[in-house]
Amino acid sequence: MALLNFKKRSAPATATPPAAVEALLKDYSIEVMPRTAEKVENFRDLLPEGTRVYIAHIEGTPIEDMVATAKRLAKDGYPVMPHFPARIIKDRATLADWIARYQGEAGVDQALVLAGGVTEPHGEFDSSMQLLESGEFGKAGFKRLHVAGHPEGNRDIDPDGSMTNVSAALKWKQAFANSSDAEMALATQFAFEAGPIIEWADTLKANGIDLPIHIGIAGPAKLQTLIKFAIACGVGPSLKVLQKRAMDVTKLLLPYEPNEVIDALAAHKAANPDFNITNVHFFPLGGIKANATWAIENAGASGVPASAQ
Residue 207 and residue 284: Cα distance in Å, rounded? Predict the structure, then answer.
């Protein structure tokens, strides 16, 4: 196989040192769906060995497609973390069946447990907390469980725009983590501005929420695509970063890349080693290949795909 040519990340002297960026991006994760994964001929040409790959479970996606994608990724050597959206899981028997399928066919032992974006529950589950309370993940011996975090709040949970219900849920999840044998972390919605992210993370820590944070970052994409997803996903204050960019004619047609927010978070992490954001989780809204290519060009050795190692 031909060797890939990696661009070296160049930056002015005043910018965040590349080593700090690489440290933040080390062990990054990325999200796929069965239909997007089908378009990737070989993940090993794109992702570093050992990259955690989340599989998003969108309403209407058959569990067979989810499991087949997990099996393929696991066979290629990637740790797989499928979504378990509470509101599309009919009952406890269905939950146990999904867990058994993932384990039996793909050796899955980790999950992102979340409520899901469905307004009306399909059955008895309405929240991630109910899935965790069921005990099915513990019974199956899952080693890692991630739960959702919302740096800019969530209007579905707090319609008044506050953080009241979100904060109460995080306290419950922290208490659950304290009594669980599984490693737990927060995997967050994406945001575009470092300031609100840092303030949110520091506030959690001050309030006794010490779960590691895997911060959601939108990968390279067309500006119009990002604005569409940001509005649909309820991204709040940092949406103004995109709106400001859209007003600049010189940038309007250029693809957005997450260098600015990554640089700011990396600089803060380098200056504050105990900062509770430990990992980056990419949402490849402009495509998996575009996101993986950006990581290869910006993450140093941490972004080198498996086939080139």
Answer: 32
Taking CA atoms, 227 is separated from 149, 190, 220, 231, 241, in Å, by 20, 12, 12, 6, 10
Tens digits of residue pLDDT in 195-204: 989 999 999 9
> What does residue 99 show for φ and ψ, rounded to 5 degrees?
-60, -45
Q: Tell me the C-alpha distance between 65 and 138, whole Å.
A: 24
Both tokens of 131, joined, read: 């899935």
Domain boundaries along the sequence of the chain? 18-308
Q: Which alpha helices (H) appear in the chain, and where do they start and end?
A: 18-25, 34-37, 63-75, 92-106, 128-133, 136-139, 164-179, 194-206, 223-232, 239-246, 249-252, 259-271, 288-298
List, for residues 46-71, the tens digit of each pLDDT value. 999 999 999 999 999 999 999 999 99
Long-range Cβ contact pairs of 125-130 (< 8 A, separation 24 or more):
125/86, 125/87, 125/89, 125/91, 125/95, 126/86, 126/87, 127/86, 127/169, 128/86, 128/169, 128/173, 129/169, 129/172, 129/173, 129/176, 130/86
The pair of structure tokens assigned to 163 is 């953080």
Rounded to the nearest 10°, the torsion over CA 222, 224, 227, 230 is -60
Q: Which CATH architecture has domain 18-308?
A: Alpha-Beta Barrel (3.20)
Whole-model pTM: value is: 0.89
Query: What are 283's strand-pairing partners?
Result: 218
